[in-house]
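Re: the request from the purification team.
They wanted to know what the chain is likely to look like in 3D before they choose a buffer screen. I agreed to run a prediction and write the result into the notebook, where they can find it.
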Amino acid sequence: GTRKIAKIRGLLSQSPVHGVLYLVFVFALAGMPPLALFRSELRIMGAGVSSAGWFWPALAAALLVPIFAAFLYHSSKMTFGPPAGYRPLFRERAGAFTGTGAGTGTGLWAVA
């Protein structure tokens, strides 16, 4: 086992039940609707708007969006990424139609 997020991959393919439960918990922690934390966040923002106006709740929401986005990004890589130690059966070969090969071929055609 490891404690490094970068090394944890493929939870959904390795253990589908745990992968689905992990996604539900991640969405709950991130405050996604229709889960309970979203409702409490909505009420807190509503109370902030009614007492202090729009500026402070909007600032808090703007600062929380990148945090939630990063949380969901890393969680999705842990859940949907290829499993740890995954090696593809076939390697991609660089040919005339990939990457710089296409550009080089086009340049040679233009010169000739």
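For the purification team: Residues 5-87 form one domain.
Please add any questions underneath this entry.
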